[in-house]
Amino acid sequence: MIIAFSLLITLIINFVLFLVAYRRQSDKLTDFAYVLSFMVVALVTWLLSNHRSLASTTAVVLVLVWALRLGTFLVMRIRKTGRDKRFDAIRGRFFGFLKFWLGQGFVAWLLLLPVIFMLSHSSRVTALFSIGFIIWLLGLSIEAVADLQKFRFKQDPKNKGIWIDEGVWRYSRHPNYFGEIAVWIGMYLVAFNTIPTPERIIGLVSPLAIFVTLRYISGIPILEKSADERWGNNPKYKKYKAATPLLIPRWRTK
Q: What's the whole-model pTM score?
């Protein structure tokens, strides 16, 4: 019951805010709706749970911390840029734009499945829980640092039209996505010992969904294509691309 109810919540949130965004032809609510979906579903599921414990409450807090960090960054970014170029082709098409909004709500629900399952069972802090927390913390730290470094890089006029090759971006072309994937691997491990085997198998869709989405659908492919179009003939960019891993960071000495 709670599984279907949580999906309904996130779809309603995204549908209602979509109507506002479509009427205003604005991109300023899109990312806000995404992180709001996580926060509301996590809190409502926790409030309805009969199995609140230190472990499950901590898991919900981790979701809220992640959402607040990401939401703050994304809202600040869209206020600065004014629009999201991803939506230029669909912003004016009702059903095309709606498809994206409902899709992001569905993805939010998928990512939260291990936590929702966890709140349906008695839970406790275990060694695997602690390992998951460490992976979550490392992922959040890498993602936050990467976002901040790129934001500051782009604000410097002397970097206009240049790709970022400093900080954590020196060791991965998409360190923010690597951090995001690590966050949800960590969340899955946090919930793993609490949930029964069938839900462990279903819950695996959470880290797999974020990996497939960022690596093969809406993240890396779009950015790599854009970068190749802008700098593909630049020898320095070719050198950077050859020396820097696509996703998983690797130490570089030069």
A: 0.91
Interior/surface letters 168-199, b for 16+ CB within 10 angstroms, e for the rest:
bbbbbbbbbbbbbbbbbbbbbbbbbbbbeeeb
Q: Is 248 part of any domain?
A: no
The answer to the question of residue 254 being in a domain is no
Inside any domain, residue 249: no
Which pLDDT tens digit goes with each residue over 28-43? 888 899 999 999 999 9
Q: How many CB atoms lie within 10 A of CB 10?
A: 25
Find, among 35, 31, 121, 133, the residue nearest to 76 by Cα: 31
Q: Is residue 251 in a domain?
A: no
Q: Which of 65, 77, 64, 69 is nearest to 30 (CA)?
A: 77
